[in-house]
Amino acid sequence: MAYTVNDLAWLIERIQGHGVKGVIIGSTVIELALRRKQFEDDVDVFVLEPSPLVEEDFYRRLAEEEGWEVSYTALGTPKLVAKLPSGEEVIVELYENILDFYVPPEILQEAPKKRIGKVEARMIRPEDYVVLKAKAAREADIEDLKIVKEYVDEGKLKLDKRIIRRDLELLPEEDKGFVENKLRELGFLD
User: Fold this and answer.
1) SS in 3 state form for 45-77?
2) pLDDT tens, 97-113?
3) In terms of CATH architecture, what is 3-124?
């Protein structure tokens, strides 16, 4: 499932062309910050509109028009199995705030636009990614955070602790202490 930055740009252009507005929230953010040209993970998108839960038929039509497949994430939101011009497939998981999956609206509103090839896409900052992964705190998330910490320690990635602290304040009160402790434990905070 390897794909290039040009494939990613093509994919984003196709999805945006259908009127989907969203913010990239997954590991793609870290890969792009590291200036990688090739990717293997899926693309996680927090959809602002149309809602993947309420407008599931919209995404089924989008997939049908593109010749893609539709499946579901672990949260029950749609995911697209997109076929690239190269023949490779990339999974695009579509999320919104549901159950314990929560991204503070401020993080989404402040997500900067980045140029990927010929298109612009909004994506969270690497610091936002770190805080959201620490909030999720599943075993796989912790492993991902350990890898990110290695990039930081090696000088390949810089993180602004002020943004991490600001993000902590945006979390629901019941999550703040846990996430802060997890970030300290992993070495992201002093």
Assistant:
1) EEEEECCCCCCHHHHHHHHHHHCCEEEECCCCC
2) 988 899 999 999 999 99
3) 2-Layer Sandwich (3.30)
